Amino acid sequence: MAYAAFRSIGAYAPEKILTNQELSEMVDTSDEWIVKRTGIKERRIAAKDETTSDMGVKAAALAIERSGIEKKDIDMLICATISPDYFCMPSTATIISSKLGLNNVTAFDISAACTGFVYILSIAKAFIEAGMKKNILIVGAEKLSAITDYTDRGTCILFGDGAGAAIISATEDKSEAIIDIHTGADGTFADLLMTPNGGSGSAHDSLDQEASSCFMQMKGNETFKVAVRTLTKDVVDILQTNNIKSEDINHFVPHQANYRIIKAVGDALAMKEEQVVLTVAKYGNTSGASIPMAINEVYESGDLKAGELMLLDAFGGGLTWGSALVPFSPLK
Ligand code: ACO
User: For residues 153 and 29, is the Cβ–Cβ distance under 8 A?
Assistant: First the structure.
């Protein structure tokens, strides 16, 4: 039987930093309010001509290089994004594949908002376990600044741009395998977080009236409550199902939406501070890119060692949610 191993990680964050102070000059807010309610201090913003695929390519190139797997052996590319280069088609995954020179891949996007990375991880696992693919590049990439209304203080303080990518490969060694992934959705909460239209490749200024139909709209407080409830249940379930205790987790990598949500879920699981990966202060919420960007921070700090167990946990528009138990299994 083939198992799926998480081989490598890469990420990219645009250079431009948007601080809370700068936002407080744009809308009626303050650094103090944003830090207290969200934990966010700053976020990255892509250049005007920098697309979601451009950022995805940079993250993916790093993940490929670190995996030790050759480009020609990659047979599938899945991109999780809610801010694709183009609305409908072509998919951002196909654009990334051509920019990387991956000529022999199945490529497609999925839309699961902030849960996108957990969803594409589960799809990669399933394709590998079914014996259909061997080396899958998964990319979470977002140019959320293209779909953010910078006159709405309820959303514009939260979101940022960036990308993260990983290589998932077939292995026969069960000790290297992704242990389990849970995913779920409930469309009855669809109106909590919505984006009627648009894409990061659209030639619009984000304050343009015509573009306003593509902006994210969120009922923040209601979303917050459902997020804490759902995330806590989801991680408790996946740990219990697999007979794993909180203390067995080396790195708890939650979606970086809001420090208060992360703290509530971490406390419910009795996670120690040093187990919880936090990047929300410097990148804000980068939706489908947030979990791989956070894993990359741990990797680049030298703290992610071969064999260590990660617990991933995400929640987002849809509503969607998901969790995953993932050992880090680089090729030896
Ligand atoms: N600055 C100052 N005041 C503000 C701001 C702001 N930026 N935003 C809202 N307020 C005000 C409100 O108007 C309200 O004022 P009022 O009491 O006079 O009516 C007050 O602050 C409280 O507003 P709430 O919305 O209740 O504030 P809350 O504590 O819930 O924080 C936040 C808002 C940060 C948006 C929070 O609800 C949140 O993080 N929600 C979850 C977001 C999330 O996880 N989304 C899912 C993933 S995203 C995705 O999938 C793309």
Answer: yes
Catalytic residue among 20, 250, 258, 285: 285
Phi-psi region of 318 (alpha: psi -120 to 50; beta: other; left: phi over 0): left
Q: Which two tokens stand for residue 262?
A: 């992360």
Give the position of tokens 């696992």: 125
Q: Which residues pair with 183 in a beta bridge?
A: 322
Kindly indicate whether the domain formed by 1-332 is annotated with CATH number 1.10.3720.10.
no
pLDDT digits (tens, 9 = 90+) for 229-288: 888 999 999 999 999 999 999 999 999 999 999 999 999 999 999 999 999 999 999 999
Quickly tell me which residue has 């250049």 as its tokens: 47
Examine the residue annotation and report whether 255 is marked as an active-site residue of this protein. yes
Nearest ligand 1 atom to alpha carbon 223:
41
Give the Å distances, CA to CA, from 86 to 94, 199, 273. 11, 5, 40
Cβ(100) – ligand 1 distance below 6 Å: no
CA distances to 11, 84, 258 from 8, in Å: 11, 24, 26
Q: Dihedral sign for Cα 112, 286, 10, 3, please.
A: negative
